[in-house]
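Input.
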Amino acid sequence: MEYKARMKAVPMRGSFELTPLCNLNCKMCYIHLNREQFDQQGSCLLTGKQWCSIIKQAIDMGMLEATLTGGEALLHPDFDEILLFLEKHNINVNLKSNGLLLTQERIAFLKAHHLSSIQISVYGSDEESYERVTGIRAFEMVIEAITRVRE
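Output.
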């Protein structure tokens, strides 16, 4: 199926970087901005409606699966609107996250709206190594988020 889609230039999958905003400061990341940096640039995010319009174009071309990422995708103020739009169009949705915003309530919402998968990035093996990469001590918070997601 993928071969046939490729031959017909059908985008079966799409990856959407919803925001450059992130709650970490990873040394290797080329995407992330904190709110202060973002505001200093005079930037603005695409709205949920704008993202839905872009995503609809991909759906109309044949997209079946979407990956939502960022920065930290969950920081986009219209994340829920975008996810609900994808659900309405029966698109499988994958989320790439650093896990820090995956509260029990957020996980319940994602589960209720049939998120296909969550990929959580882990940037160290303990608090010290995690902080060296991300700028904050949050290793245990990420491990707790992974545990919540798995449950």
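Helices lie at 2-7, 35-40, 48-60, 79-88, 104-112, 127-134, 139-150.
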